[in-house]
Amino acid sequence: MENEVGCECQLCGGRRGVVFCGAHGGRLCLQCDRALHQAHGGAGDHPRAPLCDSCNAAAAELRLNDGATLCGPCAYPYAYAYPYTYTYVYTGCPTPLEMMRLLHAAPPPPPATCSLQQRGEGEELLPTLLSATATPNTATAAPMAMPPPPLQHHTTTSLIMMIRNIHKREERNRAKLRYNDKKKTRKFSKQIKYACRKAGADARKRVKGRFAKASSSSSSSSSSSSSIDHRL
């Protein structure tokens, strides 16, 4: 299966990235994820998570009913309107069977004593990753804390398209604000760019508002002088 643009593994560049490693700052395919964290010994102790299917640049926090995974910023506008489950954060080097369970199986519900962290302003609350510790050869998972599941359901494709449309609309609004700010600082004063050209244009002879050619101006001057001589 061909990789989508912007979804390829940032280590090998040949396979599609499926997990996000915050310590290494990028998306990884399963082969590179295992090889990288096995080669560096204790490097596998830091947590990793499935990749967000919308932005492909962050760790996913929610999994919709049809399998799509979304990070907090991408999922938050719709987190209270669509059914979802919680993604796993894992450490170490899980076996292929464990990775399949971590990436595709629905995790259990969150514990009763879950914590919420406030992000941004007002009453906006988004889930935080619970701490996960394990040895390099074992995998542990922690479900994320989120509000109670909502009631409605929509397809993943329409949800992702709606999120991208919101991002585009916000970008257009920012562009309009920048344009309006530039309009306020514009100056429409009359300025002369080349003063010497203006002086030469003012000195040239005009016929009915247009510049007269040098030949016509010289002939007109000679004819006027001959007429004066004839009168004399």
Automatic annotation (TrEMBL):
It comes from Oryza sativa subsp. japonica (Rice). Residues 215-232 have a biased composition (Low complexity). Residues 172-214 form the CCT domain. GO terms for molecular function: zinc ion binding. GO terms for biological process: regulation of DNA-templated transcription. The keyword Aminoacyl-tRNA synthetase does not apply. This is Os06g0103000 protein. It is found in: Nucleus. PANTHER family: OS06G0103000 PROTEIN, ZINC FINGER PROTEIN CONSTANS-LIKE 10. The keyword Zinc-finger applies. Residues 9-51 form the B box-type domain. Pfam families: CCT. GO terms for cellular component: nucleus. Keywords: Metal-binding, Nucleus, Repeat, Zinc, Zinc-finger. Residues 197-232 are annotated as: Disordered.
